[in-house]
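Thread amino acids onto this structure.
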């Protein structure tokens, strides 16, 4: 269990770093309500996302897709992406290299 702090990233959304190393970081994003958003953004890191629970509509570039518990996918470096929560749940994101801005 991570002892790192839980940080609010928006209404009904929190993030907690679960593990980190200069080359890799694992982060839990918890969405507590339908309609909670992970705002559109981009970053130089490669990101993999695993849907631990819940259901989400993701936008990556010009494409939208719905994902649910058990789904996973990769977001390339600098791709504009974000999501809307359709059913409360948790996303487990891995970043390479780590997101120093999350520490």
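Threaded sequence (103 positions):
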């Amino acid at each position: 269990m991570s002892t790192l702090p839980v940080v609010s990233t928006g209404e009904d959304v929190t993030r907690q770093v679960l593990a980190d190393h200069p080359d890799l970081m694992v982060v839990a994003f918890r969405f507590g309500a339908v309609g909670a958003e992970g705002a559109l953004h981009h970053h130089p890191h490669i990101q993999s996302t695993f849907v631990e629970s819940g259901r989400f509509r993701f936008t990556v570039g010009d494409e939208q897709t719905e994902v649910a518990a058990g789904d996973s996918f990769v977001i390339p470096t600098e791709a504009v992406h974000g999501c809307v929560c359709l059913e409360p749940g948790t996303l487990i994101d891995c970043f390479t290299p780590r997101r120093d801005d999350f520490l």
